[in-house]
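Sequence, please.
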């Protein structure tokens, strides 16, 4: 299982993890992040961003669970290299999925609220770090197939777990903030309260 970086235009996401056969078989996934067109300003980009935050939170929870699994099996000498490779491959798919969602977020970034832009930046950083750690873990596993007990390998799993947990927390908070803000606006309208009150 060889890993290749995928560079996205716009620079926010440095790399996604992709297996070599996928990279050789077809086009690389590229994100052409840009400003929304004039016609697209009637779309609900803020609501779309909030939904993507929720989706990223679910993906990050899955990565966190898989990283925790790798941590738990890394000390067991009876667990095969294939089991480790499967767990890393699953994480790779989930991280690539987050990368695709991040691509959409970068595309609509200019049309969302400043707090949402800050969350997009946090997602970009976390996904980049998770992609790098997954790539490093795969390289280590390929080079040291029987050394999954080594501290270096476990550190990759620890890093993945921490980064995923941090992303879960920030996206969960963003989703909660969006819901509370929407409820606040709705109640103000019902009660006829002006925003400055």
């Amino acid at each position: 299982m060889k890993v290749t970086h995928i560079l996205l235009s716009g620079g926010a996401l440095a790399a996604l993890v992709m297996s070599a056969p996928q990279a050789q078989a077809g086009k690389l996934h590229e994100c052409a992040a840009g400003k929304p067109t004039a016609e697209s300003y009637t779309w609900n980009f803020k609501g779309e961003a909030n939904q993507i935050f929720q989706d990223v939170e679910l993906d990050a929870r899955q990565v966190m669970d898989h990283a925790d699994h790798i941590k738990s099996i890394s000390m067991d000498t009876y667990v095969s290299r294939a089991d480790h490779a499967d767990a890393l491959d699953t994480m790779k798919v989930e991280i690539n999925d987050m990368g695709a969602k991040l691509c959409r977020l970068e595309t609509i970034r200019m049309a969302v609220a400043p707090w949402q832009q800050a969350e997009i930046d946090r997602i970009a950083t976390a996904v980049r770090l998770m992609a790098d750690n997954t790539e490093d873990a795969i390289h280590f596993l390929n080079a040291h197939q029987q050394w999954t007990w080594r501290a270096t390998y476990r550190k990759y799993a620890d890093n993945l777990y921490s980064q995923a947990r941090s992303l879960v927390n920030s996206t969960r908070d963003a989703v909660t903030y969006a819901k509370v803000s929407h409820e606040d606006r709705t109640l103000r309208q019902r009660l006829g309260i002006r925003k400055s009150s």
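Residues 61 and 89 are 16 Å apart (CA to CA).
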